[in-house]
Sequence to fold (747 residues):
Amino acid sequence: MDWTKAKTILIIALIITDIFLIATYVQKDDNGELRNEKALLSVLEENQIFIGIERIPEKHEDMPTLSAEYRSVTQEEVEALIESTDLAAAENTEEAYIAAAEEFVSYLGLMSSYAEASTVKQLDDGTMLVTFSCIVDGTEFDGSYINCIFKERKVIGIDSFWLEPMEFSDKKMETISASVALITFMSQREEQEPVTVTGMELVYWIDYDFYEGYETVTDTALPAWRIQFSSGETVYIEAFER
Amino acid sequence: MNQSKNKMVEKIKSVVLVVLFLLTILLLYFFWEDVEIRDFSLENLRFSTENELRNTVKVTDVILPSYINICFDNDTYTKISNGRKTYWNGETTSVFKAFQEVISSEDTYTEEITAMQYEEIMTFISLRAVFEYSLPFREYCEFLGIDIPPSMDVIASIGEIGFSTGNTESMFLYDEASGKYFRIVSDFSAVSLLEDVSRQAASENLTYYPLEVYVGQDLDNRVLVPAFLETDLAALPAICTFDTETKERLEASARSFFSGTFDFVRKIEEQSGKTIYMYGYGEKTLVIDIDGSIEYSTENIDGGRSTGGGYFTALEVALLTLSEQRGLVSDEDGDFQPYLVYAEPLAGQAGYRFEFGLSAGGEKIYFESGSPFEIEVSGGQVTYFKSRYLRFDETSVHFQPEEVYTPINVIAMYYEDVYRVLQEAESGGTGRENTADFEDNADKRFDYVSAAVSDVTYGYLFMEEEKELHPCYILFLNSGNLAFYFDLYTTELLEYNNFYEIRRR
Fold:
């Protein structure tokens, strides 16, 4: 056999080997996903977990971590601003309340390009609450909020816990699917009382259970699946695949 | 025309063949190492550079006696502390080589002797290499590659190694773990070793006498005190806080605690300047504080059930971590020479705790908070690491020599303060039971303090508020569990440490 033929045979053999290795690698990667939704629902129901949403989210992309800076204002600053500006909603509409709240928060220096008015609601005592959530690249930064409180259309106070997003990590990490998050929740829960899932989405979240710093300046939020239940309870499952 | 076309085709095939071959190697690497393609970097394929290997602190660099006592033929002594390395394994004298020769002799005889016999033989021209940290005998011999005969199985640890002209065919050994003394007879003769050691020591070291000679009472502890002391140690300004340049190194060093990456790591910065890195639900935590302290802890993977290979494996892991974190503990350009201060099995779980010291210009540095480096190893991994960052100008250690008060003067001047602290500490626990109270008898208080002294030395105390390395005497009591620091020039009592409490935390 001459070297020319040998090279041709070697090239073919290596191509076959590489195709085999790539196929094995891809298949290994896919094995983590749960593809059978019916089987999943059945398992969840056996464990008293019922799905009250139309579909379990399917999409989950690789995500980076998010560093954020704590921003706050003092009660004195809020009161001084209320006295000096006497801001009020122009009329008794959601848009007017939002506009007034945005103006007030801007005067306070808290307004951010990531703040989006998410709810306007009336509380039991008759006050109106405009809530700004933190949305980063389409993902909610859970736990970062500003509440602007109105009484008779006038701003009477602010309740805020605002984390200003700073930067994403250079690297994105793989996240678990919603199905895996539900299975994780199922394996972690101790009680067996029936629960119904009413909402499920990927958010950025800081777990304060394991460390709540003293006068923290910056922190790091990691992606998590936020699972909301009909009882009003919310559970977070860390979304990074470790 | 056809020929040149064929040549071109063959060249292309050769290139394709090489590319496919390299691709196959790479894919096999991903497959076998279970590495994600996105995680791959050329760093993964890099071998350790020679520079990295050279900078690792080796086990043989730290397994040294804490000091070596030499007894001369005229009832005088000397104590070698800072230069002990040259006596332990130097070019002209090597106690280490003598130890090896005795242990590896084909024909040895081991017998237990009494403490009195041991002390008596050491009154001849002799040397004692004292190890103040736990050193298991069998494991040390295995580490040195020496098979010891079954007769030596009675020896659990090495507390002291001695040679004496009173019996030059024997090596004497004090086993700290069992409190027993042994004599190992072999075909090795210590004659030339003792001649070389005593000649060299007499020419370059101060004269010491036993403490009991000064205080006029028999003492259980054999403590040597210099007859007079002339020293040239200067107070050194020292920085323990991080600046901008060191903060960048800190980030790189911090990363190494988390397998080289901050993936999945939560970073928290507090208003005080403290930075916390946390992996998972506190599975790994690293805290870097502005006072220069760095503390890392992790949950033990196997729950602390396995040592992960024994004392020396654990020590190697500890030294590797210490070497890797060198940028966190000192100026990288400086001479980094840690020494072993403490080594004991962990309480309640398999593994070991090691403490290392630091020196400036050859003089040991002592810290108010205890040892500057604390490392716990369990299951083959570091489960706890604590260090203090410190930077100073080593070239300014020495200045005009001057005579200072001797340690015996210091004890005489301050024994009341030491007694008070000793009483308080012993009621809280120092490992020694206080069975007496001598409030009404000053002589008995002095005797009580003298009997508790286990070592006297001098070096530097890092004084945090003053940001200074301060020359001082150090008086160790209760087997080193208590330490008192006195200004070397004014004898003022500066500080004291209760190591027993620190190590029980």
